[in-house]
């Protein structure tokens, strides 16, 4: 009798354990900036990611997902602590969400070394794209230089000869101007590094006017860009010297604060809300319906990150524990990206088109962007060849 | 030469802006001996007040009035509810408490206005540029900021040196027990001075609103510069605040404008622009160090 019970119970228990294993959701940790300066970026990434999950009733690729969202307050130390807690205590299968390159550098190398997957929805520092690339690190947005490189190409194509450059004095600022110069063939009228977080550009604008360049290219993320755009207009320069920059200073959140001073400025982006593909149309309309605002490029990156994970879960039958197979599925990137063409290069960064957009006022009277061309097609970053993957 | 003159104007504009902040801070510090880190929050309150009311009414002048009113009221409330209890505590307690207030104000502003920056435009009648120096058009709005700074400096000079209230303020700064023994309500005097300082900070916030972005935490960067100004000028002195503010404004502006160019004589363009930028951002701290070596109490210490 006892033996009989044992014979039936053991397989039953094993079956139960297997069932529980299958029902246990995939754990995804999201470390992003939800408070303080730049919180709108993190909020958009989170909302974009969440939207993809909502569309599948809380699953990704048909498999239940538990999303743990944490606020890093743009502080590298905090981000690092959260990452340790999420990997050690919560034992998440995958991390994502970091907005800023300095936070990514504090978190990503140790996370990927310890075997946890990391999918970047934004930051793409060169240190992680070249020799420091890792099989466990994927970037679904761009390598930091990409948008600047496209603007360099565009200004070359448009025949600008003498361009003035401006960026903050920190690593991403220097990378930006290096990226621009990699593709710009004319002369540089001036190259100015401002203090990070500077808000008054009177000095730089006076110097710029004295040089009288054909065009100005600037990379000033967040509030810095808002101040710069307004002061550029107040100095009357927008009538005489055209302004160009990456999409970071022209997303929906920022356009609300810049007002008309951004009108007509040409900028580069891997995504635009008027991109004509089915995935994007669905994304833009669902995002607007859910959150009652227009999506930004950050939202599109969060959304694509979730859909990339969904594609890999589907391909592997929800088995994220088999790292080898899951990484291979991620690398195939079998999902319709909202940005149109998208695939991973050898360093697991995107090979994609970088578009040129223009700020305009739409029929509803809102400032937003529309596509006016393509800066670089099927573009891969300059560091990929240093990566041995 | 034109560029140099234009940069001097930029330096003066920054200087007068800093003066509005430093005047209030130095009054409070000089008279009550209170280190108020939350002074930058009052600047933020002024900017948000101006942006919100200008947005609703469409009038920049109404916005300006709202900024003065909201920052002034906020200051009075702050003094009555919280800071009053700190006068007799040591500076560390004051720093901790007012730092806490910064966090409080930032969160409150985020709850009321959301995390996105607000939009405040230059009024139509101050749009565009003026050719003050032929060949170098200068933004009309920045000229207006310089004008307001000069008016406030004059007004404060008259108030402090020529009025009864000013006499009490000066006396209170030198010896508060004696003033209070003479039957002056020193508590009320402190509250009034604090309200005045808060209004000046609010005015500064409202004036920079159309230049910069109105966002949570905007007061923290300017606060550091303001402390540099009052340390250079001498703590508790309005004259020191004015001279210190103009010095810091000019050194910062001219440093940023010309240091990278000067370095290009001996370095490559890229190295010069990068090193120049770093040197320019420490220029005001070097200035402060030099002045403190020469005059440890600052340029015009209050007696």
UniProtKB/TrEMBL annotation, chain B:
One of its GO terms (cellular component) is plasma membrane. Keywords: Amino-acid transport, Cell membrane, Membrane, Transmembrane, Transmembrane helix, Transport. Pfam families: BPD_transp_2 (PF02653). It comes from the Bacteria. The chain crosses the membrane at residues 12-38, 58-83, 95-113, 140-160, 181-204, 216-235, 242-263, 275-294. It is found in: Cell inner membrane. Belongs to the binding-protein-dependent transport system permease family. LivHM subfamily. This is Branched-chain amino acid ABC transporter permease. It comes from Aestuariirhabdus litorea.
């Amino acid at each position: 009798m006892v033996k009989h019970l044992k014979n039936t119970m053991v397989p039953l228990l094993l079956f139960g354990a297997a069932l529980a294993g299958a029902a246990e959701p995939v754990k995804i940790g999201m470390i992003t900036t939800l408070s303080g300066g730049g919180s709108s970026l993190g909020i958009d990434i989170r909302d974009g990611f969440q939207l993809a999950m909502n569309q599948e009733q809380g699953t990704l690729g048909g498999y239940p997902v538990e999303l743990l969202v944490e606020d890093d307050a743009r502080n590298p130390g905090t981000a690092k602590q959260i990452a340790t807690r999420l990997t050690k205590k919560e034992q998440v299968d995958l991390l994502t969400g970091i907005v800023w390159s300095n936070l990514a550098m504090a978190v990503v190398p140790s996370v990927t070394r310890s075997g946890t997957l990391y999918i970047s929805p934004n930051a793409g520092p060169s240190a992680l794209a070249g020799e420091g690339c890792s099989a466990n690190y994927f970037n679904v947005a761009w390598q930091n230089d990409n948008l600047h490189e496209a603007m360099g190409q565009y200004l070359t194509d448009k025949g600008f000869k003498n361009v003035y450059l401006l960026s903050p004095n920190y690593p991403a600022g220097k990378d930006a101007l290096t990226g621009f110069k990699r593709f710009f063939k004319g002369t540089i009228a001036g190259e100015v590094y401002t203090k990070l977080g500077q808000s008054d550009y009177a000095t730089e604008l006076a110097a710029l006017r004295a040089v009288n360049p054909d065009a100005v290219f600037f990379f000033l993320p967040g509030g810095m860009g808002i101040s710069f755009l307004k002061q550029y207009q107040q100095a009357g320069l927008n009538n005489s010297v055209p302004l160009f920059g990456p999409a970071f200073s022209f997303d929906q959140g920022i356009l609300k604060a810049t007002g008309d001073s951004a009108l007509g400025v040409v900028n580069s982006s891997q995504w635009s809300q008027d991109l004509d593909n089915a995935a994007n149309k669905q994304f833009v309309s669902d995002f607007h319906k859910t959150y009652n605002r227009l999506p930004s490029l950050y939202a599109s990156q969060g959304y694509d990150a979730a859909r990339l994970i969904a594609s890999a879960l589907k391909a592997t039958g929800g088995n994220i524990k088999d790292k080898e197979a899951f990484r291979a599925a991620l690398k195939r990137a079998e999902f319709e990206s909202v940005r149109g063409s998208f695939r991973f290069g050898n360093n697991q960064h995107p090979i994609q088109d970088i578009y040129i957009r223009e700020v305009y006022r739409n029929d509803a009277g809102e400032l937003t962007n529309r596509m006016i061309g393509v800066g670089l097609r099927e573009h891969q970053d300059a560091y990929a060849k240093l990566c041995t993957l | 030469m034109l560029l140099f003159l234009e940069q001097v104007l930029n330096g003066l504009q920054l200087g007068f802006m800093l003066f509005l902040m430093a005047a209030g801070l130095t009054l409070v510090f000089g008279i009550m001996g209170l280190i108020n880190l939350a002074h930058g929050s009052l600047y933020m309150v002024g900017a948000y007040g101006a942006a919100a009311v200008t947005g609703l009414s469409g009038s920049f002048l109404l916005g300006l009035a709202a900024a003065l009113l909201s920052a002034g009221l906020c200051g009075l409330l702050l003094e009555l509810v919280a800071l009053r209890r700190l006068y007799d505590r040591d500076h560390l307690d004051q720093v901790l408490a007012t730092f806490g207030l910064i966090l409080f104000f930032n969160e409150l502003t985020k709850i009321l206005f959301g995390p996105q920056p607000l939009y405040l435009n230059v009024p139509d009648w101050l749009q565009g540029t003026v050719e003050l120096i032929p060949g170098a058009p200068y933004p009309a709005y920045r000229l207006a900021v310089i004008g307001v700074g000069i008016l406030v400096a004059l007004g404060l000079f008259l108030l402090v040196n020529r009025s009864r209230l000013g006499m009490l303020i000066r006396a209170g700064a030198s010896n508060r027990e004696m003033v209070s023994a003479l039957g002056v309500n020193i508590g009320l005097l402190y509250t009034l001075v604090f309200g005045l300082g808060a209004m000046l900070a609010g005015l500064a916030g409202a004036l920079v609103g159309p230049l910069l972005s109105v966002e949570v935490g905007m007061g923290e960067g300017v606060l550091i510069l303001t402390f540099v100004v009052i340390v250079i000028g001498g703590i508790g002195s309005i004259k020191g605040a004015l001279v210190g503010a103009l010095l810091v404004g000019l050194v910062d502006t001219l440093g940023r404008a010309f240091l990278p160019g000067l370095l290009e004589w001996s370095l490559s363009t890229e190295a010069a622009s990068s090193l120049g930028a770093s040197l320019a951002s420490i220029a005001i701290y070097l200035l402060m160090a030099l002045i403190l070596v020469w005059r440890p109490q600052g340029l015009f210490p209050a007696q």
